[in-house]
Structures are given as C-alpha cells and as structure tokens.
C-alpha cells in the first residue's frame, strides 16, 4: 500500500459505518414496505367490500345505506358478515373482501406476536448455533465490537446483565441478546458456548471481566467442537495485564485458548503495514513518536521490531527520563538497539517551536512522525510540525495523528495545509475501527500467516522445543510467529510490493544481493524479537536460561545459520499463498 494508506486493510475499517448504515437502512426499509403493503391491501379490500355490498343492494340506495355498508365492510376485519349477505350470488368484490380482510387481520395479529417473540426465540435458538461469536457486556466498547463483527458477517450472541439502551440497537442489528447474570454458568450455556468460535469479554470492569472469564471456562469445559474456543477478556490495569499475559503465555493447546485483549496493541499493530513503505525504503529511516503513554510506547516497540538496524527513533515526551525508565523496565534487552532517543516536548500548537524539537528539525531528516495525544492536541501538534518542516524546506513527511473520535478534525486540518504534497500525507489512526478490529480480536489473517510460519519452522527444525503443532504451541512462541508475520509487510516493502487478498501466482525475484540484504534484515528482526522475550547472548543455546550464541551481527554467523535466514526470506511467496494472499506493486505517491 502507499505510505499511510489504510484502504486495503482486511477488516474493511473504512467501510464499516457504511455497511452498518446499510443494514439499518434495509431493516427500516423492509418495515416501511411491509407497513405500506398492509395499509394498501387493507384499504383496497375495504373498498372492494364496500363496493360489493353496494352492488348487492336491492332497491333504492340512500345515504344511510352507504354508511351502513361502509360499517359492514369494516366489520369484515373481525370475520363478521351479516347473514342476509350470505347468498349464492355474492358479488365477486365482496367474495374477495370477505376472505382478504380477515386474512390480513390474522396476518397482522400473528406478525405482531412474532415481532414480540422474535427476540426471545432468537436467543433461545442461540444455544444451537455453531461457530458464532459471543460478546459479554452492554457498554459502548462491547457494542462497537459487535457492530464491527456484524458488518463482517459474523453470527453474534451478546450477553448483557440487564436490559440497557444498547439492547435495542443490538436487536436492530439482528443480534441475539441473552439477558442474565454474567457470573452464571447457565447464562453462558444459553448463549451456546459449547459450540461457539470465540468469547470476547468486555464489561468495562476488570474484576467482572475476570469473573466472567472463569465462569466461561467452566461452562466450556465439556466442549466437543473440533476447533478450540478463543476466550479473551479486556483488562485495563497494566500490571494485572502483564501478570495474566505471562501466565497465559505458557498455556499449551487444549479445548480453550485464553488471552488478554490489548486494544492498544491492536492499534499499534495495524500501523505496521501502513509504515512498511517507510521502514522498507531506507537502511536508516528516522521516525518521531510524540507522547509518553501506553500507545506511544507500544508503537515504539512495533517500530523497533520491524525497522532496520540503522533506524533512528526520537520519542518526544514531557518527561524523557521517566518515559525511558517505563519503556525499558519490562524489556531491558531493547537497550541493545542503539537508535532510540528520548527528548523533551509536548503536543500542542507550539510543538515544533520547542527547543529540542526545533533543534532536531534543524539538523536531521525526518521520514515519518506519529503523534499520540488527545484529538485536538494531536492535530495542533501535526499542523505545527507541518509548518516547521515547511519553513526548513524539508520534503513532505508522512504524519500519523491519533484520532479517536473520527476523521472530522483531520479533514479540516488538511484544508489549512498549503502544500498539497504534505496535506495528502496527513493520516489518522487509532479510531474505534482499529481498536475493535474483528480480524485482530478473532485472530484471522495474522494467525493464518503465523501458523504458516510455524509449519515451515516444523519442517526445518523438528527437534527444537517449539517443534509441536500450532494447537500445542505455547502462546509465547505463537506471539513470536505473529511478530514475524507482522514483518512480512516490511520485507515486501523492501521489494516494492504490498500484500493483498488473492490467489494470483507471484514471483518476487528474490536472488543474489536482494536475498542477502533481506536475510540481514530478517536476522536483525529475529535478534530484536529475542531481546523482547528476555533472551541474551550466551556460549550455548539454553531454553531455560534464555541464552543463544546467535545474537550477533549477521556477518559473524556460520553459513548454516545464515541459510535459515535466507530460507525465511525465500519462503515468502509460499507463506502468502497459504494465507490466501498475493502481492502487487506499491503505488507511488500521487497514484
């Protein structure tokens, strides 16, 4: 994809609102059409009945008779017809009306009862569903995730503790709603958990989420489905998240796979394909990340994992020392990356005029900037950065701006940028679409790539500790495969390609110097991945001590180890094909 382009993301995030609006429009349109047809048929049948009575009248017809026959035509709705009207030569108009009006009345009555019964029936039948997704919670986050899943065509059941305003919206989407105690095993059984594909627990309260997680595990204990149940819950406390994630990282297969939903990581992960043209266009790109919160630090980790060894990253934050301490505390091995610098600055209208930022712009090239702040402050900082770069005659720079509320501020900001080349390189990220991406929550495309990577590893290293099937692979190794899958987009960018869904055959032309360059990049990625998991350089490889002799520059590796990196690169076409993907040339700017 072109730099920053999000139009080809598999979760179709840019089209979600249109899809949901289309669903609601179709439902409203269907209701209106049905109402119009009922009213039209009722009126037509009434006129026919009235006409039939008038035609069957004997003698002079007076005003009182006209009114009387109109009343009798209305009575046909209640199956009531005067005995004297039942004769052999009933006019055809009355014959039609005497059956049409009662039938319509009966249809309307039955439809009304069915409308009332449809919701409980929909919930009742949810226990018989297969491969559906269960969302637990009635808050805005749960509702947003449900909307996105519905837009992608997933069968859904939502568990809410009590009727909420969201219940009506869920019913409008055609979603089965199970009202019941979240801490009750019966509630989960009613939702069809034994045959579900996934359970996403999003009540908004950590304690409630964890309680629901335990109850759901108990309810799904007798599961007999072929595929394991994906059981995921949101935990907002960062320390608790770290503890639980470490615990789940050692789980091995079984009928249930539990993990913590990290919405922040979802946003950071979806930036990798959009940044790939930057990370894959130069051996020493320079990126700026503005902010010191969780999202900014997640993004920094993703960039380090996917960028080249010569890359430079400048983190602009209010308190550089404190932010650096927070960043390195869980991942001390990342200190081996020498290109990371923390400097002082704050998002806002005067961002580019700050001493540290202005000095950096005066003396260094900037290849991309990512601004993580509140919507208004982030836009103000982006515009300030645009002015600062323009004043120094810098080329147009891709700037990614966190926008949770939508694209309105971003679109308005583009209108104020005089350089058209710069205005088209102002991008938004971090919206609800990206946070709640069903593809990541349900582990779709990413896990298909990761699984294929692991299967290729099994073919090469059948005696290693991780040489077990994907289903039995500990989560820590699965996540390592996912990180390698993220890097596929960067490798393709080095070759001038982007990944898209499809089955067309591909020839990436990976030979000679190109192969060796990508092997060097792959080895660096592997080193960063090992550092992130707490590995260090040692004389021998030890799983328990987490040491390996291969955390050295590529040039120092033995040929048989270099061959492993080359094989990883050469496997790219097969990897993409097995995941249902192909490639196309990256669009040049302005295409």
Describe the structure.
The protein is of the alpha/beta class and 591 residues long. It has four domains: 14-118, no CATH class; 129-261, 3-Layer(aba) Sandwich (Rossmann fold); 266-272 and 283-435, Rossmann fold (3-Layer(aba) Sandwich); 443-585, Globin-like (Orthogonal Bundle), CATH 1.10.490. Helices cover 51% and strands 12% of the residues. It has helices spanning 16-55, 63-75, 92-124, 140-151, 165-172, 185-190, 206-219, 238-248, 263-279, 294-306, 320-328, 355-363, 375-391, 408-416, 420-423, 432-435, 438-441, 445-460, 475-486, 488-495, 512-532, 559-570, 572-578; strands spanning 133-136, 156-160, 176-179, 198-201, 229-234, 256-261, 286-290, 312-317, 340-344, 368-371, 399-402, 426-429, 497-501, 536-537, 547-548, 581-585. It has a six-stranded parallel β-sheet, with helices on both faces. It has a six-stranded parallel β-sheet with strand order 9-8-7-10-11-12, sandwiched between helices. Strand 5 (229-234), helix 8 (238-248) and strand 6 (256-261) form a beta-alpha-beta unit. Helix 1 (16-55) packs antiparallel against helix 3 (92-124) and helix 18 (445-460) crosses helix 19 (475-486). The radius of gyration is 31 Å and the shape is elongated. It starts with 15 loop residues before the first helix and ends in a 6-residue tail after the last strand.
């Amino acid at each position: 994809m072109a730099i920053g382009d999000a139009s080809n993301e598999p979760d179709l995030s840019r089209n979600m609102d249109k899809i949901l609006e289309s669903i609601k429009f179709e439902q409203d349109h269907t209701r209106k059409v049905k109402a119009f047809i009922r009213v039209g048929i009722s009126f037509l049948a009434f006129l026919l009945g009235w006409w039939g009575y008038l035609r069957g009248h004997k003698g002079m017809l007076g005003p009182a008779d006209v009114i009387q026959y109109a009343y009798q035509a209305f009575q046909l709705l209640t199956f009531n017809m005067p005995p004297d009207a039942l004769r052999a030569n009933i006019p055809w108009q009355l014959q039609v009306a005497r059956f049409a009006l009662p039938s319509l009345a009966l249809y309307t009555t039955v439809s009304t009862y069915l409308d009332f019964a449809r919701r409980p029936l929909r919930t009742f039948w949810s226990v018989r569903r297969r491969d559906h997704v269960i969302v637990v919670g009635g808050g805005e986050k749960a509702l947003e995730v449900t909307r996105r899943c519905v837009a992608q065509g997933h069968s859904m059941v939502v568990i809410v503790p009590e009727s909420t305003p969201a219940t009506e919206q869920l019913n409008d989407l055609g979603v089965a709603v199970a009202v019941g105690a979240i801490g009750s095993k019966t509630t989960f059984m009613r939702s069809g958990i034994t045959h579900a594909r996934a359970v996403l627990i999003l009540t908004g309260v950590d304690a409630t989420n964890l309680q629901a997680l335990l109850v759901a595990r108990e309810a799904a204990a007798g599961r007999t489905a072929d595929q394991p149940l994906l059981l995921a819950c949101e935990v907002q406390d960062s320390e608790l998240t770290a503890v639980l994630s470490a615990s789940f990282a050692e789980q091995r297969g079984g009928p249930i796979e539990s993990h913590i939903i990290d919405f922040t990581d979802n946003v950071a992960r979806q930036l990798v394909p959009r940044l790939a043209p930057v990370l894959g266009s130069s051996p020493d790109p320079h990126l700026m990340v503005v902010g010191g919160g969780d999202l900014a630090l997640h993004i920094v980790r993703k960039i380090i994992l996917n960028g080249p060894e010569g890359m430079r990253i400048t983190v602009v934050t209010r308190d550089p020392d404190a932010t650096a301490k927070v960043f390195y505390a869980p991942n001390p091995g990342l200190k081996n990356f020498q290109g990371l610098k923390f400097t002082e600055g704050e998002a806002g209208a005067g961002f580019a005029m700050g001493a540290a930022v202005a000095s950096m712009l005066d003396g260094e090239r900037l290849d991309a900037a990512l601004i993580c702040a509140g919507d208004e402050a982030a836009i103000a900082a982006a515009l300030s950065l645009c002015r600062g770069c323009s004043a120094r005659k810098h080329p147009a720079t891709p700037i990614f701006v966190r926008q949770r509320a939508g694209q309105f501020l971003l679109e308005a900001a583009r209108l104020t940028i005089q350089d058209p080349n710069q205005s088209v390189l102002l991008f938004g990220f971090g919206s609800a679409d990206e946070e709640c991406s069903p593809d990541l929550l349900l582990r779709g495309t990413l896990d298909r790539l990761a699984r294929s990577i692991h299967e290729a590893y099994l073919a090469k290293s059948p005696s290693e500790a991780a040489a077990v099937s994907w289903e039995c692979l500990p989560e820590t190794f699965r996540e390592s495969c996912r990180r390698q899958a993220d890097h596929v987009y960067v490798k393709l960018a080095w070759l001038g390609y982007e990944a898209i869904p499809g089955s067309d055959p591909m020839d990436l032309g990976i030979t000679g110097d190109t192969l060796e360059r990508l092997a060097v990049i792959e080895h660096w990625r592997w080193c960063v991945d090992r550092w992130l998991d707490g590995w260090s350089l040692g004389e021998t490889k030890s799983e328990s001590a987490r040491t390996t002799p291969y955390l050295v520059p590529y040039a120092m590796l033995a040929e048989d180890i270099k061959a492993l990196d080359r094989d990883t690169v050469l496997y790219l076409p097969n990897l993409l094909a097995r995941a249902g993907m192909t490639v196309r040339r990256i669009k040049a700017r302005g295409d």
